[in-house]
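Morning. Coffee machine broken again, so started the prediction first thing and wrote up yesterday's gels while waiting. Chain of 85 residues, entered below exactly as on the submission form.
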Amino acid sequence: MVNSRDVAEQFGKLHKHVLRDVDALVNGCPDMGTREWFREVETEIVGGQGAVQRVRSVDLTRDGFTLLVMGWTGRRRDIRNSTRE
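Came back before lunch.
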């Protein structure tokens, strides 16, 4: 498992963009079983003056990570097409 924050850092992307791409995968490919590859995580961060902020991230399995990264390299389209044949 790897967390979406670590993926964003390692690939030089904004975390909100990684979350956007994960959401697109989960909502756009339900027939591929993608929901099992991503697990929502909510963390509470205590800031100044005791204010609590909830921060969303996603844990990715190896399959989820692979699918996400291939989308950034343009290979996801090829896999989707090959699974439909």
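Residues 15-28 form the longest helix (14 residues). Going to sketch it on the whiteboard this afternoon.
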